[in-house]
Target: Iron ABC transporter substrate-binding protein
Amino acid sequence: MTFFTRTALPLLAGVSALTMTAALAEPTQELIDAAKAEGTLTTIALPHNWCGYGDVIAGFKAKYGLSVNELNPNAGSADELEAIKANKGNTGPQAPDVIDVGLSFGPAAKDEGLLQPYKVSVWDSIPADAKDAEGYWYGDYYGVLAFGVNSDIIADAPTSFADLTEAAYANAVAIPGDPRSGNSTMMTVYAAGVAKGGEAGGDALNKGIAYFKGLKDSGNFVPVDGTSQNLAQGTTPIYFDWDYNLLAMRDTLAGNPPVEVVVPSDAVVAGVYVQAISAYAPHPNAAKLWMEYIYSDEGQTLWLKGYCHPIRFNDMADRGVIPQDLMDKLPPAENYAKAVFPTLDQQAQAKTAVADNWAKEMGIQ
Model:
């Protein structure tokens, strides 16, 4: 899979003048009216501090006057698919209209018949290798795996996966949750395997499991979920997550305690998250209008404000519509120069490996 970083400003191959026109398109009044008649959008797994979702949701409500029913903000990608399955015949408030999941979950959901296709008006400016050709799912933003460090507790921050094995970081390292159900955690294990020389796919994932088993055996791994609260309190003074989550956490803590965000030098693994509409969405027009909003220049700019790299970054940069003050708040571009994007096949292999081996190797249920 070939993607781009914010250093790659030229348009991707194949993006034409037609795309430039499409990038400025607006949803039809017919769609807006139909969505307003439904009145509500039901989302799931969208914490407000994730990728700037608080501002994104507020912007959507302010622009179109719809209410947003937010389900289980802390759910993982697998939980989102289960919510669709559990509510196939339900048009009530527990049935999600839209999902935001890790890249590998998009094709799986399509194969299970859980999604309906919809191509947003800016479809042509979304890179071809970041979307389903039929419009069942499409990438919206990406980031890289990094770790946050509580500088009050750990003055000399590690810079790599290799550093984290040192005795100085005993009882310090955590991950966001269970890699069998959360994409960010699975990709953290994958990145550790890349740092250990693992080949792509299942090999990298299994080497990552071996890495974390080593951290557990040495006492460096903390077997609780890494969160901003646990980091601030010192329970997990180092924990992994996507860079945009950690940068937002750093800003929220405002120096109490000071937090350093580190992109590990020995493995820079990027991950794309994708959007999709439930095949059983109770509010299908509101779902389509939501897609139009988050892929518009306005919505994509809000991703960047939340420290995510929007999928239409190159197109927007070429047209000069990205505010410079947002660019200035991002980490140095060289931090992303070595980023690799695991393919769908590689992620599928990783999902199989983590399901088969994580619990067995880590001694958990």
In short: The chain has 14 helices and ten strands. Residues 1-23 have pLDDT under 50 and may be disordered. Residues 17-142+271-333 form a domain with the D-Maltodextrin-Binding Protein; domain 2 fold (CATH 3.40.190.10).
